[in-house]
UniProtKB/TrEMBL annotation:
It is found in: Cell membrane. Its main location: membrane. The keyword Signal does not apply. The chain crosses the membrane at residues 21-41, 289-310, 335-358, 378-403, 424-447, 681-705, 733-752, 767-790. InterPro entries: ABC3_permease_C, MacB_PCD, Macrolide_Exporter_MacB. It comes from Chryseobacterium zhengzhouense. This is ABC transporter permease. Residues 20-231, 434-646 form the MacB-like periplasmic core domain. It comes from the Bacteria. Residues 294-405, 685-796 form the ABC3 transporter permease C-terminal domain. PANTHER family: ABC-TYPE MACROLIDE FAMILY EXPORT SYSTEM PERMEASE COMPONENT 2, MEMBRANE COMPONENT OF TRANSPORTER-RELATED.
Length: 804
C-alpha cells in the first residue's frame, strides 16, 4: 500500500511540476530563514550556561519607576548591607572595570596585556573557571594580587605554571595568585587578568550614592525573586533614603522620588545577554529577536498557505480518482493518510534542501552578526524538524480532509466543478497570504524611512576629521599628561586644533549625578572638558557665552548647560542664568553662563539627556578622569597626518601600548549599525515573502484559469475581446488583493507604531507606505495573473468546444 501511495504521489508531482517546484522552493526558503534565526536566538540564549551556579546567580539592576528607566550600577554599602540583612543573599561580587589593558613587566619580558577586569574577592565563587595553577583562596584579597588566564600567563611568562610570580605595572608589583582556564562556551565574562578594586572599595564603603559598580548576587536556592525585590526596597533603598533625607530636608519617600532608584530588578545570569533591562556587560534586545523570529515563522506560514491553496486548487484533477477509490472501498482515513504522506515527502525534501542551504549561507550570516555559529546543536535539528511536522499537518491535513470528503456519486456525475466550497476556502487563504505580504511591504517601507530619518537628522555637532586617542597607560595625574602633550601635538604637521571632552559622541562612556535646585532635582550627564571643546566640535551656542580661561570664575564655579537641561527644570533661558544649581559631585553652588544647542552623545534613538559642561579642573576628582586627547585634522593629507600622529604617540607618549584611536564621526556611525542591520534583514525578508507569495499566486491562478478554459473558449466564440477576457479572469484576484490590503492597514499601523515607540526621535506615521502597498500589490497581482490570463485567450477553440 505504501509503495502504491508513493507511486501515485510522484505521478502527481510530475503532472503538476510547477506547483511542486513552487512548494519545494517556498518551504526551502522559509525553513532556511527559520533555522538561521533559530540558531541566532539559541546562540544568544547560550551565554553563561557553562556556569554550574547559574540557577542561583542574578544580575542586579536598578529601576526608576517615575521615568521607567533602568541602571546597572550599585554602591558598595548597598551590596554589603544586602548580605547582612537579607537572608536570601549568600554572597555578592562587584565589578569596577572591564576591557582594561596595561603594559606589564615580568622577569621574562615587557608586553601589553589587554582584556582585564577589576572584580571583588568573591569573583571565583561566582565563576569557577578551571584552576591551572595556584589557589582561589584569597586570590583577589588585597590590592597587590592578581589572577591570570592561561592565555595571559603564556603572553607574560611563556608558560602557565606561574603562581607566585611577580608582575609590575607602573612600578607597582603584583603577585600572581592563580592561573585559570577560560571556558570555551559563550560568555560575556572572559577576563584575561583580574585585579581587586580593594583600595577604591575601601574608600567607597560609606558612599551610598557612589554607584560605580556592577553587581551579581548569589541567592539561596528557591528564592522568591519578586519578594526579594520588595525586601531590597524596604531594607536597602529606604534605609539609604532615611540616612540621606535628613541632610536634604525631605522625607525618605520624597528623597527616593528625587534621587532614586525606587526599585530593583534581578535577572538570572544566563538571561542577561538577551533579556536584561540594563547590564554591566551590555543590554539585551529580546524584542528585536522576537520580531525576527516571528517574521521567519510567517515566511514558513506563507509557504504552508501556498501548499494548501495549490492542493485544493488541484482538487478537480483528483476528484474522480478519489471518488473511484471510495466507490471500490477505500476509507476516508486511508485517503487522509495518503495525502498527508504526499505532503510529508515534499516537506522532507524541502527540509533536506534547507539544511544544505543553511550550511551554505551560515558563513555570511556569521559575518553579518559577528558570530561563530556552527550547526552542531541538536536543538536546531529537533525544532526545525518539529516545524516540518507542523507544516505537514497544517498544510497537509486541510487539503487532505477536504479531498477525502468528496461525495463520490456527485463527483462522478461531474458536479464537483460547480461546488463553491473549495473556492471560498482558497480565496480565504489567499487573502491571508496577501495580508501578510501587505504588512511586509508597509513595515519594510516604515523601517527604511525611520532609519533614514535617524541617519539624516542633524546631530548638533561635527565629528568630521576629529581624531580621538584614548589614554592606554595609567597616569597618576592624567590631566597633566594631557596638558603636557597638547601643545606638542599641535606642532604635528596637519593638526589644526587639539582639545579634550568627557562626553564624546559615540564613545558610550559617560557619568552623571543629580543636579539640585531648591526642592527639585534632575539627573544630568557630566561634560568635563577643555575650554575650547564645544567650539572644537562645532556645537552651537544658543544664548549666553562660552567659558573663558581668562576669567577666574570660569575655572571654579561657572558652567554651561544644554537645552535639555533647561527644559528638564522647566525654566526659560533667562531664568536659567539667574538660578544657581548644586551638582551631586560638589557642595558649591554653580552659576550657568551659557546654553548650547542640544547635540546627540549616546544614541540616535534616545532623547538627548541634560548635560552640564565645566572645565575638568573645576573638581578634584574629574581631572583624574581625563582619558583622551582629540585632534582636528586638516583635510588635505588625512592619512599622512594620522601616520605622523601615530609615530609621535608610540615614540614619545605611550611606547609599548596599543594606539587606541578612531575618528569620532565613524565611531558614532557605528551606533546606526544595529538599525541598518534591521533594515537589511527586513528588506531580505520582504523580498522572500513577496517571492513566495507571488509564485504561489501565479501557480494558483494558473490552475484556476485552466479550470475556466472552456468558458473562455465559449465567450471568445461569441465575440469577446482579449482585453475583456483578461480583465474578467483577473478581476477576482484584484478584488481579493484590494480587500487583503484594507484588512492589513490597521494591523500594520498598530504593529509598526509599537515598533516606533522604541525611538525617542521617530517619524510620524507616514501615509505613503499604505498607499504604495495597495498600488504595488494590485499591479503585481495583475501582472502575475494576466500572464496566464493572456495565454488563456490563445486557446484552441476546437479542443474545448468539440463536445458541446
Amino acid at each position: 500500500m505504501l509503495n502504491n501511495w508513493l507511486k501515485i504521489a510522484f505521478i502527481n508531482y510530475k503532472k503538476n511540476w510547477l506547483s511542486t517546484i513552487i512548494n519545494l522552493f517556498g518551504l526551502t526558503i522559509g525553513l532556511t530563514g527559520f533555522m538561521l534565526i533559530l540558531m541566532h536566538w539559541n546562540d544568544e540564549e547560550s551565554y553563561e550556561r557553562w556556569n554550574p551556579k547559574k540557577e542561583n546567580i542574578y544580575a542586579f539592576q536598578t529601576h526608576n519607576k517615575a521615568e521607567n528607566t533602568y541602571g546597572n550600577n550599585i554602591s558598595v554599602p548597598m551590596a554589603e548591607r544586602a548580605i547582612k540583612v537579607i537572608p536570601e543573599v549568600k554572597d555578592f561580587v562587584l565589578f569596577n572595570g572591564s576591557g582594561m589593558g596595561y603594559k606589564m613587566t615580568t622577569k621574562v619580558k615587557t608586553v601589553y596585556q589587554g582584556e582585564g577586569m577589576s572584580a571583588s574577592e568573591s569573583f571565583f565563587n561566582f565563576f569557577p573557571f578551571r584552576l591551572v595553577s595556584g589557589s582561589y583562596k584569597d586570590a583577589l584579597k588585597g590590592d597587590k594580587v592578581m589572577a591570570l588566564s592561561t592565555k595571559a600567563a603564556k603572553n607574560l611568562f611563556g608558560k602557565t605554571n606561574v603562581a607566585g610570580e611577580t608582575v609590575k605595572i607602573n612600578n607597582k608589583s603584583f603577585v600572581v595568585t592563580a592561573v585559570y582556564e577560560l571556558p570555551e562556551a559563550n560568555s560575556q565574562i572572559k577576563p584575561d587578568f583580574i585585579f581587586s578594586p580593594y583600595e577604591q572599595m575601601k574608600g567607597d564603603k560609606e558612599q551610598w550614592g557612589n554607584f560605580n559598580y556592577g553587581c551579581f548576587f548569589l541567592l539561596k536556592p528557591g528564592t522568591d525573586v519578586e519578594a526579594l525585590q520588595q525586601k531590597f526596597y524596604d531594607n536597602i533603598f529606604l534605609y539609604r533614603a532615611k540616612i540621606s533625607a535628613q541632610g536634604a530636608g525631605v522625607t525618605p519617600q520624597k528623597y527616593l522620588e528625587l534621587y532614586g532608584p525606587t526599585g530593583s530588578l534581578f535577572t538570572p545570569i544566563d538571561k542577561i545577554k538577551l533579556h536584561a533591562k540594563a547590564s554591566w556587560f551590555g543590554n539585551g534586545d529580546f524584542k528585536t529577536m522576537m520580531i525576527l523570529f516571528t517574521l521567519s515563522v510567517l515566511i514558513v506560514v506563507l509557504s504552508a498557505i501556498n501548499f494548501i491553496n495549490l492542493k485544493t486548487a488541484q482538487a478537480s484533477q483528483r476528484a474522480k480518482e478519489i471518488s473511484v477509490r471510495k466507490a471500490i472501498g477505500s476509507t476516508k482515513s486511508n485517503l487522509v493518510l495518503q495525502f498527508l504522506l504526499e505532503t510529508f515527502v515534499i516537506c522532507l525534501a524541502s527540509y533536506l534542501l534547507s539544511l544544505a542551504l543553511t550550511e551554505l549561507l551560515l558563513p555570511s550570516f556569521n559575518k553579518f552578526y559577528n558570530k561563530e555559529i556552527v550547526m552542531n546543536d541538536w536543538h536546531i535539528y529537533f525544532y526545525s524538524f518539529l516545524m516540518v511536522l507542523a507544516v505537514t499537518l497544517i498544510s497537509g491535513l486541510i487539503p487532505a480532509t477536504y479531498l477525502a470528503n468528496f461525495k463520490a456519486i456527485e463527483t462522478l456525475k461531474g458536479n464537483f466543478a460547480r461546488s463553491k466550497h473549495g473556492i471560498w476556502l482558497r480565496n480565504g487563504i489567499l487573502t491571508l497570504q496577501l495580508i501578510i505580504s501587505s504588512f511586509f511591504i508597509i513595515g519594510g517601507l516604515i523601517v527604511n524611512k525611520q532609519v533614514k530619518y535617524m541617519m539624516d537628522k542633524d546631530l548638533g555637532f561635527s565629528g568630521k576629521q576629529v581624531f580621538l586617542i584614548n589614554f592606554s597607560e595609567n597616569s597618576d595625574k592624567p590631566w597633566l599628561k594631557y596638558e603636557r602633550i597638547k601643545n606638542e601635538m599641535k606642532k604635528i604637521e596637519g593638526v589644526a586644533d587639539v582639545s579634550y571632552g568627557e562626553a564624546v559622541p559615540g564613545s558610550g562612556r559617560f557619568s552623571n549625578s543629580n543636579i539640585d535646585y531648591m526642592d527639585k532635582s534632575i539627573f544630568a550627564q557630566h561634560g568635563s572638558m577643555d575650554y575650547n571643546y564645544l567650539q572644537f566640535m562645532d556645537v552651537k551656542l544658543k544664548k549666553g557665552r562660552w567659558l573663558n580661561p581668562d576669567l577666574a570664575s570660569d575655572t571654579i564655579t561657572n558652567v554651561l548647560v544644554n537645552e535639555a537641561f533647561v527644559n528638564k527644570f522647566g525654566w526659560t533661558d533667562d531664568q536659567a542664568f539667574k538660578n544657581e544649581v548644586r551638582p551631586g559631585f560638589d557642595n558649591r553652588p554653580y552659576h550657568i553662563v551659557g546654553i548650547v544647542k542640544d547635540f546627540n552623545v549616546l544614541n540616535p534613538r534616545r532623547a538627548i539627556e541634560p548635560i552640564v559642561f565645566f572645565h575638568y579642573r573645576e573638581t578634584d576628582w574629574k581631572r583624574y578622569n581625563v582619558y583622551n586627547i582629540q585632534l582636528k585634522i586638516k583635510p588635505d593629507d588625512i592619512d599622512g597626518t594620522v601616520k605622523r600622529i601615530k609615530s609621535y604617540w608610540q615614540k614619545n607618549v605611550e611606547p609599548g601600548y596599543p594606539f587606541d584611536s578612531y575618528f569620532i564621526d565613524k565611531k558614532f556611525a557605528e551606533s546606526f549599525v544595529k538599525y541598518q542591520k534591521q533594515q537589511t534583514l527586513f528588506t531580505i525578508l520582504n523580498a522572500m515573502v513577496l517571492m513566495v507569495a507571488l509564485l504561489g499566486l501565479f501557480a494558483l491562478s494558473s490552475l484556476m484559469i485552466e479550470q475556466k478554459l472552456k468558458d473562455v473558449a465559449i465567450r471568445k466564440t461569441l465575440g469577446a475581446s482579449d482585453g475583456t477576457l483578461i480583465f474578467g479572469l483577473t478581476k477576482q484576484f484584484l478584488w481579493i488583493t484590494f480587500i487583503a490590503v484594507l484588512i492589513s492597514i490597521p494591523i500594520s499601523y498598530y504593529l509598526m507604531n509599537e515598533w516606533l515607540k522604541d525611538f525617542d526621535y521617530r517619524i510620524d506615521m507616514p501615509v505613503f507606505p499604505f498607499v504604495l502597498s495597495l498600488i504595488s500589490l494590485l499591479i503585481l497581482t495583475f501582472a502575475v495573473v494576466s500572464i496566464k490570463a493572456y495565454q488563456a485567450t490563445k486557446v484552441n477553440l476546437v479542443k474545448y468546444l468539440k463536445y458541446e
